[in-house]
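Table S2 (text version). Query chain:
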Amino acid sequence: MSPVRAAALAAAVLAGLGAPARAAENALNAEELKVYSPTVVKGERELEWRGFSTGGHQQGFAASAGYSPTAWWAAEAYEVMHRDPGGVLLGDAVVMESLFAPFAPGERWADLGLDAEAEFPRAAADPNGVSVRPILEKQFGRALLTLNLPLEWKYGPGFTPGTNFSYAAKAQWLASPLASPALEVYGQPGVIGRFDPLRDETHLAGPALYGSVPAGGLGRLVYSAAALIGLTPASPRGTLAVRLELEF
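Corresponding structure-token output:
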């Protein structure tokens, strides 16, 4: 990020303190509030649930099932849902996802991965989407740094041409398998070449906690939770994101 853009972001944060979240809050989806890791375990099956809430203003959920047939490929399918204030739970889209990890952990200077998704909305008037998410992860002692740089394209009814850019990152301190603190950041600048004005972009950051516990004969339960603060006027003031994953 350039010094000018960083200064503008800081100014937007100050301007947004105490201001209500704007329409960009609707851009949040449960499947996006996760930092992906380039880790694939052959033969692993998983059931996952993700959810977020913006202080009672908006709620989103994603439920999925996945399987890793090889040591370099994991496939997953999930349903994305949301609930507006006072409304009912509605299905938004079905997403098919493949995570590719071409190298074994530690084989390169950093662990690399690529996540590819195809999104099919429930509403016939909404466009479909395809995306790729390059993943970079590097460990320094007990510090684990992970960066995701998703790129998304829309097609079909009412689509907007262009490449949508976003980012997700975390810095995690590997204190214990049971509980490790972390910092997460997310952002949605918009379409490359015509980013939204900074005050209308969504940028979130906040502390998180990661860990896993045995789940009896079922395998292990992996959890993470983050308390995210909006960094621009268009961002939700506060967002709680929770993810639970049963691996077996």
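Notes on Table S2: The longest strand covers residues 128-140. Residues 3-16 form the longest helix (14 residues).
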